[in-house]
Write a structure and sequence with these properties.
This protein has about 200 residues and is mainly beta. It is built from 5 helices and 11 strands. It has one domain: Oxidoreductase, molybdopterin-binding domain (Sulfite Oxidase, Chain A, domain 2, Alpha-Beta Complex), CATH 3.90.420.10. Strands 1, 4, 5, 8, 9 and 10 form a 6-stranded mixed sheet that branches. Strands 3-2-11-6-7 form a 5-stranded mixed sheet. Bound molecules: the ligand Nc1nc2c(c(=O)[nH]1)N[C@H]1C(S)=C(S)[C@@H](COP(=O)(O)O)O[C@H]1N2 and molybdenum atom. This is Sulfite oxidase-like oxidoreductase.
């Protein structure tokens, strides 16, 4: 492997020097756009639950109170929206999908995140385990604002941000890959920002 100090790669400019910006993206800095395909659902915490269903031996369900009692992790991550903004070092807290999926027995290879409001998105199971994804309910140490997916959203920082389903209520496990909302509308099935997988065929 060639040793090249990152500070000497590319032209001057923080984004190029740090290597944190995937191709075609720009740093939105302090902004945090809201991108929602429909109205913001408002589910009362006493009505909220999270389920893991589909191809599992026994489905599991957590109420809000039960979810709050699960082991938590703090996450700092860069996020990348397919509309080309990236936001560096966002800070979240929530429950790792490793913890949630430990509660079920499954031979599935895919997970479909199911949300209040009907949004869905599909992910390979291997992408959401081993520290790849969380269901987060705190952003910057505050309850996640409803427009950003509160009370709880999926966070999958290594894929384009449309995979980070807001208002998530369920994880459905499947042995087949079932395209979700944006994937059905022509977006890439996988969505790796580093390979610029924006649209089907990229
Ligand atoms: N339920 C749901 N989740 C969603 C969306 C949506 O419309 N509905 N939009 C996706 C897209 S395209 C992006 S870029 C991010 C935007 O999250 P933000 O509004 O917190 O920036 O949420 C993703 N998750
Ligand atoms: Mo997006």
């Amino acid at each position: 492997m060639t040793f090249v100090s990152r500070g000497f790669v590319g032209r001057p400019g923080a984004d190029r020097d740090t290597g944190k910006l995937p191709p075609g993206q720009y740093d939105i800095g302090g902004g945090f756009p809201v991108l929602s395909a429909g109205p913001t659902p408002r589910t009362a915490l006493e009505d909220w639950d999270l389920t893991v269903t589909g191809e599992v031996a026994e489905p599991v369900r957590w109420t809000w109170r039960e979810f709050q009692a699960l082991p938590r992790e703090d996450v700092t991550a860069d996020i990348h929206c397919v509309t080309k903004w990236s936001k560096f070092d966002t800070t979240w807290s929530g429950v790792s999908l490793d913890t949630l999926l430990d509660a079920v027995e499954t031979a599935a290879d895919y997970v479909i995140a199911v949300c209040d409001g009907g949004y869905t998105t599909n992910l390979p199971l291997e992408d959401v385990v081993d520290g790849g994804a969380w269901i987060v309910d705190l952003y910057d140490d505050e309850p996640l604002p409803a427009e950003h997916g509160g009370p709880a959203r999926l966070l999958v920082p290594h894929l384009y941000f449309w995979k980070s389903a807001k208002w998530v209520r369920g994880l459905r496990l499947s042995s087949t890959d079932e395209p979700g909302f944006w994937e059905t509308l022509g977006y890439h099935d996988y969505g790796d920002p580093w390979r610029e997988q924006r649209y089907a065929g990229d």
